[in-house]
Amino acid sequence: MRRLILTISILFTLISLAEARECKSGDIKGDAFIYSDGKKVTVIQGTDIPNPENKIIMIFNKGGWKVEKKWGECKDFLPKQLGQISGTKIKGKELVLMLNGNLHKAGGDDGYKCGWKFKGAWHKPWYDCVIAEWAIPKRVKVNKDLIDKLVSKGTPRDQIFMSGLSCGGIDTLRHKGLHPKDFNATISFMPNCWDRRPNTPLRKMVIDEIKSFERIDALVFHSPVDGEGDWRSNSEWMKKDLGNIPGIQWIDTPGHTGKDIEVNGVKCKIKEKMIGGWEEAWPEGKEKLTSEKKFIALEKKLKKEMKKKAAGHYMVSYPCFKYYHPKIINFIESRI
After folding, report:
1. What is the pLDDT of residue 17?
2. CATH number of the domain residue 106 falls in
3. How far apart are the first and last CA of the chain?
4. Per-residue pLDDT tens for 259-287?
5. Is the four-CA dihedral 187, 312, 69, 230 of positive or negative sign?
6. Domain range enclosing 279
């Protein structure tokens, strides 16, 4: 009987490994475990992985107000770079990166639909419309369903970590604050998730809720030159508002060295340029706007200079961020 059980176990392992594929091209659809050596990327599609009880799973959530069904090319920067943490042994268990392929189920509006509806944006009717469609609260159930599925397949809750970039970083912080027992802890990359209007009510809504939580066990990476359009989303402002929450450990990534960002002497060579980070004002006399370009930069020269520089928001997807992989691993090890 023991030999039969062992044979069945080996068979299932071989079947699971046979479903792994090297990523050269093609979209990643649905959930996927990712392994990478920095050049080649291997994908195990779905939620089945050999020896789940001995896996530490770090789920990664995409950013954006609205998430599309597919991830894009499997050779994209994020799987290739962050996937290098997979295979790391922590207290006899294997760490594996998992891409969350379910966030599209939360729906949501990217702001354009509401903008077309009201023939303009950044006024009360537009905000009411966006908030009514806001997907971030709905992602809690989506994440719960994925976590429950992994637990049902054999991975203990305290071996599951939630991570995410931008809005994905915000929704994992929210989830941990709302339901601290659902998973072990959060690893949040450059969390921000609102619009660029000065004093936007979306930022207040998001920040006020997160500040209301008694504790959030999380490792948060942020940048002084985040570069997204979200109003006051860099590390200076985020730490002012959220820096005193018990449980959060902050890691500030570097600012600009010339037009690029360097980490431990390595140039990041980030393609994305800054589209925000300078102070702006609302045009006097306007009720609504039809373009972000209508916001008025308080220092036009600064804006012109900053638009030529790399955006720190996307650093996790570049080779220079490998410097921080040990910090992620050490954080996870401290919680296992």
Report:
1. 47
2. 3.40.50.1820
3. 34
4. 999 999 999 999 999 999 999 999 999 99
5. positive
6. 2-335
